[in-house]
Design brief:
Layout (H helix, E strand, L loop, with lengths): L8 E2 L1 H8 L3 H9 L6 E3 L4 E5 H21 L13
Antiparallel strand pairs: 1-3, 2-3
Length: 83
């Protein structure tokens, strides 16, 4: 169903849907501290604030720009993600 447009907090499933990845990948980002989140209640109810997700996305753009600058494209590269 997806998140409400004005929801402040998102579930890991919501975040996964927005990033077109798996909930397991989002959980790994949260547990490694790469994507700030809060844990509410005692049953693993993780929530990511929308503003934190936007900040994470901006950091990924910056890291990707840095990677591209440091690793010029070579025509023989094959894409790793062919989805």
């Amino acid at each position: 169903m997806g998140p409400m447009p004005d929801a402040r907090f998102l579930t890991l499933a919501d975040v996964a849907e927005m990033l077109a990845t798996s909930s397991a990948q989002v959980y790994a980002l949260v547990r490694r501290g790469e994507l700030p989140a809060i844990k509410i209640g005692g049953r693993g109810q993780w929530r990511v604030e929308r503003s934190e997700l936007e900040g994470f996305i901006q950091r990924m753009y910056a890291e990707t720009r840095e990677f591209v600058d440091q690793h010029p494209f070579v025509d023989t590269e094959a894409p790793a993600d062919t989805r």
